[in-house]
Amino acid sequence: MKIPVAGNSVPAHTPGIGRRFRRLREVKTTMLLQLKKAVKAVVGHPSVEPVDLIPELTDADQAIIERVRPFTLTSPEKLWSLIQSVRYVSARQIPGDFVELGVWRGGSSMAAALALKEIGDHRRMWLYDTYEGMSEPTELDRKTRSGAPPAMEKWQQTRIGDGSDWCRAGIDDVTANMTSTGYPGEIRYVVGKAEETLEREVPETISVLRIDTDWHAPTKAAMDILYDRLSPGGILILDDYGSWEGARVAVDDYFRGKAPMLMHRLDRGGRLIMKV
């Protein structure tokens, strides 16, 4: 069999054809990634307003979302779901603390604090982070279905000691941002890698558990150690399930062999589970 190419005939099994097609795919993937970065650099945050994404958005919801957006990388949909989650556990009197792992500048925890303060619920908050940027990833840690290289490449380029410039926010920055909310409840800042700090400092009971650690190791530690402490009716929010392969594998491995859980989609990356 021959394949006609521009008036010539080329044997279907000509050596090198497969390699050339693979190379073309690699070039295409690289160009698409570069285009995405260029567009993001020019336009910054999407111009779509939260009210266009969430028809039932209230004025109070929008005020909180707009207040915290400079301090978070999460979408309006995720922020809105978090606000509804803390209101839900408060209204249903579900016991336990609020816990977030991977806080960056504190925007999501700020949203939770503002929503809790608004309804007079001052439950304890736990904020786990290295406060030194992203910790070292593994080969499992890569963007889901993106064709992008493993996260290790970017981490090596941005490395500073055991941390990195990647999503780096110091504890002083986060503390100042949380203080600005005026939240009167206790806030505990736990510094270090989650897989290490969770071995020694954990809440007794949790009502809302938000995991935003991206990588496999800290996500696995959070699921293994904290999920059992989540109250029945409590909310688990997985920020990276659809975005980072390592995070998804850690969650899937945890639930494998257990009773099925209903997982709700928040946006491309985010998922929500109500514990039953």
From TrEMBL:
Keywords: Methyltransferase, Transferase
Entry-linked Pfam families: TylF
GO process terms (BP): methylation
InterPro entries hit by this protein: SAM-dependent_MTases_sf, TylF_MeTrfase
Any GO MF annotation of the entry: methyltransferase activity
Protein name (record): Macrocin O-methyltransferase
UniProt source species: Sphingomonas suaedae
Native organism taxonomy: Bacteria, Pseudomonadati, Pseudomonadota, Alphaproteobacteria, Sphingomonadales
